[in-house]
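Chapter review. Work through the record for WD40 domain protein beta Propeller before attempting the end-of-chapter questions.
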Amino acid sequence: MPIGLSRRAFLRTTAIAGGTAAFTGGLWQQAFAGPAQPGVGPYGPLQAPDANGIQLPAGFTSRVIARSMQRVPGTRYTWHPAPDGGACFPDGDGWIYVSNSEVPVVGGASAVRFDASGNIVDAYRILNLTTLNCAGGATPWGTWLSCEEYAFGIVYETYPQGGRPAVQRPAMGRFKHEAAACDPVRKVVYLTEDERDGCFYRFRPKVWGDLSEGVLEVLVGSGTGPVTWRKVPNPRLWTTPTRDQVPGAMRFNGGEGCYYTGGVCYFTTKGDGRVWAYDAEAETLDLAYDDDLVTEGEPPLTGVDNITGASSGDLYVAEDGGNMEINMITPDGVVTPFLRVLGHDESEITGPAFSPDGTRLYFSSQRGRSGFIGGTDGYTYEITGPFRR
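Structure tokens for WD40 domain protein beta Propeller:
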């Protein structure tokens, strides 16, 4: 790095000079030259905060659907502390939103069931007595993968409709799991690892739809561009952590959210403020966003964390810290705030997920207004409005 030039300034200069790669697949086939840049979003500016303290674009509304340590409205079920990763699943004429609990020993996951009109009709537990359940991912066969975030953490396959016990999936590796995303074309599950020198993995089940057996692989490469995969020798029981078992494994600074769509797996790394784009067909890696590569003004998206997407191709990235926003990254390469939660300064936004019809967005403020690390003041919200579809 040149003397007297900050890392951000140096990277901005490199980007302007054409030093970053254009994207090659999925949403990025329209090929803007480099990572997303700030701009005006499709919904316009954020309005004054509503009664829940949330700033939204015109035409959107919010409601609180659950509070940690309080009964979910209309049910006798007490919502869990520290709500984290989440997903939605169709359920007859309605749908179900599931949410992890990122606390030790009693973490697990819960579910809220909605009818066709969006009324809450039930809430219940789907996973018990697990620890630090952070994020996860939905499967094409309708289960929720709940991931434990500690050194020997495991993936649990759970059933959103309830009535069936969750199942451990140790073949998917024991490490500090964060999120998962299924690729039904290549029949693999991508996995992130929340370590400062973590890795990006994929699990190839022996039989698609059955996660009890398979091969865990780690991404190998030297940066953006072509990458390959290599088998992790000992994913279940190890004395050498999975991330250190394969020479040349690519390192990522704090793997967080993971979302697959249209041949591309997007995943975030909080340590360097990046959203990565892995083109599964071309087997190449690029950057969809980097807060150090914002070329004008301050980056609108910082503290990248959970990520999801809409059928329109828009990505929605939640902030852990930052200024408590969910930012959009549009297919034409614009990054812009979609919502901002006020008064929750010591919290983080978690669990963004769309209802199956794309008309409602769910998310949580993990520690709420109090910021208490135990998450007993968590809030879970629903946003309704004219989402692009």
